[in-house]
Every structure is written in C-alpha cells, then in structure tokens.
Amino acid sequence: MYGIFMESVVIFKNYAGNRLVIALFLLSLIFLLFKEKDKRRRAIFVYTPLTLLFLFFFPIFRKIFVRLMSGEGDTYYRVLWLIPMGVIIAYAGVRLAGMVYAKKGKWMKWAVLTALSIAIVFSGKYVYASQYMSKAENLYHLPQTVIDICDLIAPEDGEERIWSVFPTDLVYFVRQYDTDIQMLYGREMVEPKWQYAEPVHSIMNHPTTIDIEELLKLTRERYCTYIVLPSNKDVTEDPENFGLKLLDTVDGYPVYYDPIAADAVLQMQN
Amino acid sequence: MIVVKIVSIVLWMFVIPFCIGLIPMQWIPREKKNIGVVFIAGYLIMLPLCWVVTVPAILLVKYDSFLVMVRFFTVLIGIAAAAGIGLTALAIKKKKWISLKPAFLWKEISIEEKIEWILFLTLIALQLYKAFTLTSFDGDDAEYVAQSLVTQQSNTMYLIKPYTGGTTSLDIRHSLAVLPIWIAYIGRMTGIHTTILAHSVIPFVFIPLTYLVYFEIGKQLLHKKKDLLPPFMIFMALLQIFGNVSIYTNETFFLTRTWQGKSLAANFVLPLIVCLLLWIFDKENTKQADKKENTFGLWLLLWLANMTAGVCTSMVVFLGAVMVAVIAFWMMIAERKFSILVKAGLVCIPNAAYMILYLLLRI
Fold first, then answer.
1. CA distances from A60 to A4, A83, B80, B115, B161 (A)
2. Which residue, A92, A60, A94, A20, is CA-closest to B225?
3. Residue A133: inside a domain, yes or no?
C-alpha cells in the first residue's frame, strides 16, 4: 500500500511539473477554506477538491481505477482533472481582490489583480514555448515534406491502396494526410515506451546504416511498392542495384519505387 | 469554393447546434437562458445523438457502416434542429418565450470593466491565432486524427488500423468514444479534409465553447460582484496559456490537443458538470420568489453532459461519475437532503450503462 501511495506522490509531482502553480492552488484552497462562507461554494470548491485529492492518494482508489481501466495505470494523473484547479485559483484571486477593494479601495484592488496575474505567469509555463510547438506549414498542420512525399506516391482515384515504408520520424503523419497509403509499420511500432518489435522497422531504425538487401527481402514479401529512406543514414548498397527506381528526393528523403514488388502485386491481383 | 466551405462550417458547427440547443430552453430557469447556454446545450444534445446513432451502426452494420451513420444522423439532427425552431416558435406564439438576453450590455458597464473585457478577448484571440498558426506534435494524433480520416475515406468505422491501414477486429475501447466519427461526419458534410478540420477549424469551436462554460461558472460565482467577472475570466485565460507546467495538465491538453476527446472531456465536460451542479444547487436552495422554478432542464443537461463524456473518452465516463458523486455527497451534507444523492445517481445512469456495455463488449 505504501508503494502505491508513493507512486501516486510521484504522479502528482510529475503533474505539477515542479512549478509553483500548484502552491498557488493550495493557497487558494486554504484561502477559500477560511473565507468562503457560502456552504454550497465550500462543498464544491473546498470539500470536493480535498476529497478528490484524498482519493487520488488513497491506494485502494488507485487499485480500482487501474482495474476498471484495464491496467492503464499510466493515465492515473487524469484523476487530477476532476479538481477545477484553475477555477479555484481564479475565484480565490478575485475574492481576495474584492476584499481588498472593500477595505483599501480601487488602486489596491488593481495592485492585487496585477500581482496575481504576474504570479500566474511566473508560476506557470508558457504553452506556446513548448518544445512540441512549431510553426504550422499548412492547413493540415502536418510537415510539408510528408505531404509532398504522399502526393508523389499516392494512388490515383480508383486505384488500389499501396503499401509503403517510411522513416520513423515521418510515420506519425502519413495516414493523417492520406489513408490510401498503408504502412508496414506505424506509430505503435516506433514508440519506445511500447517496446514492440517489427522486423522492417528494426532494419530502418538501425542507428547508422540500412541493410538494403535485408530490407527488400522483407518488403517484397509483403508487396510493399514504395520505400522512403531516412535522410541521415547510410545504405549498404545503392538501392537501384536491386531494381528500385528513385522517384525523387524530397527534403533529403530519397523516395523509391519498387517495380518488382509492383509486378508481384499485379500478379496477385490477376 | 472557400466561401462555400466556410458557410458549411458555420452551418454544421454553429447554426445547427444552436437550433438543437433551443430544445431544452423552456425547461431551463429564465436567468440561465442566453445565447452561450443555447450553444452549449446544442453540443450537449448533438454529440450524444451522434453516439446513439454511431455505436449501433458500428456494432450492427457490416459494410459501409459510416454511410448508414451519416444517413441516420443527418435525419436525426435535422429533426432535432427543426424541433428546436418549432418549440421556440410555439413558445413565442403562446407568449411564453423569454428572449435570449446578453449577459450584460456594453454601454452599461464601467470603463474599467471595458478595458478588462478587451484584455480578456485579446487573450482569447491570441489563443485562436496560435491554434491556427502553430502546430503541436502529439503522437496520439496518429490514432485519433487518422481514425477520422480512415472513416471519411473508407466509409467503415473502427475496422481499419489507423496507424498502418491493416484490417483489424472491432476496437471496442476506442469505438465507444465516437468523437473522431463526429469529426468525420462534419468532414463529410462540409467536404473538408478531417485533418484540416481537427487541426485548423475545431479550435475555433472548442476553445470558445470552453470559455463559455467558464463564463457561466464565473457569472454564477460572482453574481453579487459582477465587476469581478472580467478579472476572473482574465485569470482563467492566463491559467490556460501558462498552464503547461507538464504534459499532463488539462490546460496543456486544452491548447495542444484541442480536437481530441480527452481534451474536450477535461476542459468542457468536467467544468460543465461543476457549472451545472452549481446552478442546480443554487437554484434548488434559493430563497427567492422564483424558488418554484423547476430544475428539470438542468438535471437533463447534466444527464447529457454525462453522455457527452462517453462520446469523448471512456475514462471520463468513470471520472465524471466520481465527480458527480463527490459533489452530491458534500451537497447532501450541506443541505441535509438525501434526495440529492438519489437525483445524482439517476443522472449517472448513462455512465453506468456505458460501463456495462463496455464490459459486455469486451467479454
């Protein structure tokens, strides 16, 4: 039980991200505990958050959650979504400003509101400075490189869907643009946390060199007609020596067509 | 062409939900009726209707299940929108209609408040501008966004693996949370690629929708001190913009994964449950003259909010029930009324039904 409790403590710390905004929340909760006189407000914005915090750290609740969520313990942090932290901070903040206004006048109210706004800004983290944010290159909000490659290899209207192989960094986006392009492996194989193994991905994901012969052995078995190689890795041999045709190089990614696999697809269809 | 697409977006994502949202207005206390609440109610009815049509289509229709869903859902929301307009027309005819007044009139508020509201609206405009011009990488999009596109392009639902395109047996866990199908539906009706819809259009609906809920919470909490409402809203906006303290917070989900069901559940459904319970308990325990005004419409909206949770993500079906139970428990103690727990239990019936269906389908 103690171990489960400590896991919840770690989840809570990760959620709070070592930022002071959680302190701001706890201070707001204490402020409302003493200053909020309306029993219904207290029930919703003081006792309910305290109960939910208790449940969050309570090992049996965590066990029930994990059991109900089919073992998905890594999403336990979502229990914290039940606590309206933002509303509690904002409500306590304006209540404080209102109290100051009644006693000290308008300018002090403005001073409190400004100080609280600064506290929110400095205790939090600007979402648009996140490492995951970047300038959108198009309305799809997908890398333009992926769109250009997909436009190059996508089947025409009425044609059969095609199978392809993409480098790890592009697999997330391909089927958000065109689902007529199928892939031998997708996101489920490239996420390190899931630790799945897929032979084609193992070859493509080699840190320095891609073994073309091994790769083609596997892709041809699976009727894969398009291969997009990574832009930053060596190959054991020129792919054209094995019959591949270089269609284009898009943003450093060489895009190959495999006529041998395409013939096999035709034979299979006939 | 682009004008036609914008008009269709306005029709399917604003006008139709608004007309549908008129349906429950006659059962809602008069001071709660405003344009924002109609819009919220519209989504609270439209999304559960989508679930009611989509899940049977997924389970019972073997081929082209999305086509079946599109036909039935179009008829259903057409009827719902017509019902909303019809009921409103009838109420106007019988002189029972209370017009949808704005929460405040611009000319009636002080210059200070005007400055604060302008500041708040600037923060919202910043969020919308950033949502349109920035992109956030999230691995889950390879599943959710691709799922909408697979549906739009293949006319099947949850039978093709979004990651690769291979066929699969029915994915029960995800198939009950049908928000990607709703996005595919809007994509089909507007002719817009679902990825553009998810990443570039939906933030313009879901971000304002969320702030409408915060606005209603703020209005209720500060109805005696209305001058504090604009600072409350500014704080809420700042907390969203600076809420990226980790990748796990609902604020991070709100502005980086706006289109995903998890984000809608955390930032729209859960705060809405708080808002509705606040309204209900304030209304049921008020000592004012209009005490007798019935809260049936609010309980109905809470029922629909619980159903909407299921549209977004299976997990929040459970979490939403926990939230209703905890708030109802403390309210029962505060008001010394056991009936509160009974009513709270009744509005959680959709959650229980959803969980039972989920377990049955997994066996």
1. 9, 19, 44, 50, 35
2. A94
3. no
Instruction: Report the alpha-carbon distance of residue B275 to residue A95 in Å, rounded.
Output: 18
Tell me whether B270 touches chain A (CB under 8 Å). yes
Best residue of B6, B239, B247 to probe chain A, by most A CBs closer than 10 Å: B239
How many pairs of residues across A and B have Cβ atoms under 8 Å apart?
259
Quote ipTM for the complex: 0.93
Phi and psi at residue A162, to the nearest 5°: -115, 160
Most confident of A99-108, A189-198, B34-43: B34-43
Whether A139 maps to a domain, the answer reads no
Number of domains in chain A: 2
Q: Which residues of A touch B316 (CB under 8 A)?
A: 78, 81
pLDDT the model gives residue B27? 87
C-alpha B180: how far from its chain's center? 14
- Whether A160 and A106 map to the same domain: the answer is no
Whether A160 and A228 share a structural domain: yes
Which range of residues forms the domain containing residue A38? 2-127
Nearest to B241 by CA among B118, B122, B107, B91: B122
Taking only the tens place, the pLDDT of each residue in B235-278 is 999 999 999 999 999 999 999 999 999 999 999 999 999 999 99
- Of residues A40, A123, A187, nearest to B139 (C-beta): A187
Same domain (yes/no): A111, A182: no
Band (B293; pLDDT cuts 50, 70, 90): low
Mutation target to probe the A interface, by most A beta carbons within 10 A, among B248, B316, B324, B359 is B248
Report the residue from A48, A139, A175 with minimal CB separation from B200: A139
- Output the pLDDT for position B291: 54
Split at pLDDT 50, 70, 90, the class of B228 is very high
Q: Which of A127, A153, A185 is the last residue of a domain?
A: A127
Check which CATH number belongs to the domain holding A193 and give it: 3.40.190
Domain range summary for chain B, segments of one domain joined by +: 2-97+110-283+291-362
Among candidates A82, A133, A171 on the partner chain, residue whose Cβ is nearest the Cβ of B136: A133
Q: What is the dihedral of CA A177, A181, A182, A188, to 10 degrees?
A: -20
Tell me, yes or no, whether A154 and A106 share the same domain.
no
* Alpha-carbon dihedral angle through residues B212, B217, B223, B225, given to the nearest 10 degrees: -90
pLDDT in tens, B130-180: 999 999 999 899 999 999 999 999 999 999 999 999 887 777 778 899 999
B337 pLDDT above the threshold of 70: yes
**From the centroid of its chain, how far is CA A254?**
27
Q: Taking CB atoms and an 8 Å limit, are A135 and B141 in contact across chains?
A: no
- Cα-atom radius of gyration of chain A, to the nearest Å? 28
Tell me, what's the pLDDT at B290? 54
- Using CB atoms, pick whichever of A65, A72, A117 lies closest to residue B238: A117
Spatial contact of B301 and B277, defined as CB atoms under 8 Å apart: no
Q: Does B221 touch chain A (CB under 8 A)?
A: yes
- The crossing angle, in degrees rounded to 10, of helices B2-10 and B179-190 is 140
Whole-prediction pTM? 0.93
Domain end: A71, A100, A127, which one?
A127
Which are the contacts of A207, defined by CB distance < 8 A and separation ≥ 6?
Answer: none
Does residue A263 lie within any of the structural domains? yes
Mean pLDDT of A133-159: 95
pLDDT digits (tens, 9 = 90+) for B8-24: 999 999 999 999 999 99
